[in-house]
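Deadline looming. Please check this record:
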Amino acid sequence: MRDPRVLRPQAYVWAITLVLLAGCGTQPPQPPPVVAAGPELTERSLTEYTGWWWLSNATAEMVEERIAAGFRIIDLEVLDTDPWRFSVAMVADAGVHEKDWWWYYGEDVTSAVVADMIAEHDARIIDIEVVEIDGQRRYAVVLVPNTGSEQVAWWYLLHTDLDTISAAVSTHSARIVDLDSYVVDGTRYWNAVMYDNTGDHHQTWWWYYGVGVDFLVDAVDQHGARVTVLERLGPDAYAAVMVENPGVGWRWFFGLTAGQVGSLANLYSVRLIDVEPRQTDDGLRYDVVMLQNGFHCEFPEQGTSDPVSENEIIDRAVQAEMCDQNLVGLAVGIVHDGRIVYLKGYGFEDAEERVPVQAKQSMFRWASVSKSVTGLAAVQSWLQDGLSLDSDVRFLVPEYEMPDAFVFDLNDGEGDPSWGALPLPPDTVISTRMLVSNLSGIKHYSNSMTTGGTPPAALRNDPTVHTDLLWAGPYFWDDPAHLVAIPRSVYSYSSFAFNLAGMAIARAGSGVPMTYWEKVRDRIAVPFGMTPSAAAVPDYPPDGFVSGTFFQPDHEWVDIPRRAVGYRLETVQVDDETVETGAILQSGSSDVSWKAPSGGFISSIEHMAQFCNGVMNHPSVTDDMREVLWEPQPLLDGTVSDGYGLGFSLGERNGRTLMSHNGAQQKVKTNMYIYPDDNMCFVVMTNSEWASSGALVQALEDAYRSTLP
């Protein structure tokens, strides 16, 4: 049997010849692979979870800051030399990746200096880049020790051609681990680093050059391979090294923005091992190779805070659900017997800046869980302000204009709606009770013949216009089609209804005038420990819009610290259909405090846990109040709406009575489960808009209950 290595030099020359013809439409065949399998570079093969970072178009000072923070470079690209700017991929210099290492760049880093540094440190190259300064070649290089268990025979070639590289690969029975290519006076030159590929270092591998993306995709599929080195040679022309892949998770993408790189890394739980930047008319774009970063559903716990349980069962259950849903950041809390027994954050409140979720610091919007706050505020106002839950809301909010008719879908939800209208019965009223039990008949955002009702974004974000709750009301009630049912005839979910209830709560009472927020703050947030009292905050502003990491309306113009960045899935239009691409993008941020009673609060997960604990256990909330909050509401036909009380959904899970509310909004998904018979509550907040908050809170509950005696 002939030794396949004897044929290798001729085979590579043949491949080179065909590559030169590739521009004429001919694709090269694969070079014969090096047989057998073995270890790869730790930097580009180990899938144990590690912290990692990448910087785009960064100064040397920015890179050094990351190094000082405990990271080391595994891939380096030089973007400019005046001043020096880099794109780098880094791993935490700890655990399986911990080692001595060095990087060098600058006008004095010649090939001789590189050789000296290799000799001085007894090191080997993992990445090398060439630049031209005043007509002279200079280098940027990353070195690691070539000693101990990681010692390997290795070689590198500078300013050479493909024939020489191919011959060296054959002569040394080597495998390429880094390629750098550049053009001088119309001639393409190469730098290459290669390691011994015999014995324990055997790895089946292939390399290609001058080929397009489609060819590489086919090659990866044909060989069952993954790419370890990617070098862009020009428009749709690449060199690549790939190794046989026994099942390691990896991804590669072309033409991404910096934001898309970070989003996709979060989506797929991968880390960057190779990045190829290029300047385009639309700015820097990146071709990237990414490697699985941790086995499925293994995340580090972030932001541990007191009181906290280090219970592995709960952590793993939360992590597994988070991983299954590909979430960016998550915060969870558990209340039991009047105590917060579990608070923890996972993932990132800001993925781009790698800011971890911290249970007592990271601020998430409540979304519609805010409705439970308004339900409790309504019952408090009934007891303290004389608010009549069953009187016409127009006694307190005469600005509200109730239409003469309600609209309905003639097709009853089958196919495209066809709208009709009928007059309201004589003496129809809408009460505060109807508003906070979703029985008012007022439309939601898109369930009427007319959409809208939300104020324009520019006005929502303008504190000179947005001065109270009332200013936004006409945007929905001036619509003559804003009723979609006869009040108290049927359950019909509505955020606008809760906003109107907030206005009534603010107007109720004959004492010192208070805003809706002031009543919520002083009667709920301060007593429950969610917000400091005015006396506890120096120079507390008269409008109450003080900044801090506590429960408050999410005023866009207030500098609230640790606001979590929101994330959404990218969508595109394909044949008139909206399709998710899988890419994770930042959500943006528009003011929601104009609808504080229905979905406008923000806080940490700790404060949401304090709220549900207060509802169950604070002495200001009596059994009689809870009975009113959680009572099914009567309908006109004599039946009851048994799925919703006053600001709380009513139901059961696994035979247990459950009071709950979930929330979905720009930047967040939230959920709160209260089990009054067990004096137990579970809360979750995530900055990933696609999350299933129900699955999250149920995973949390099931894990916790499994730990109980």
Observations:
- DSSP finds 17 helices and 32 strands in the chain.
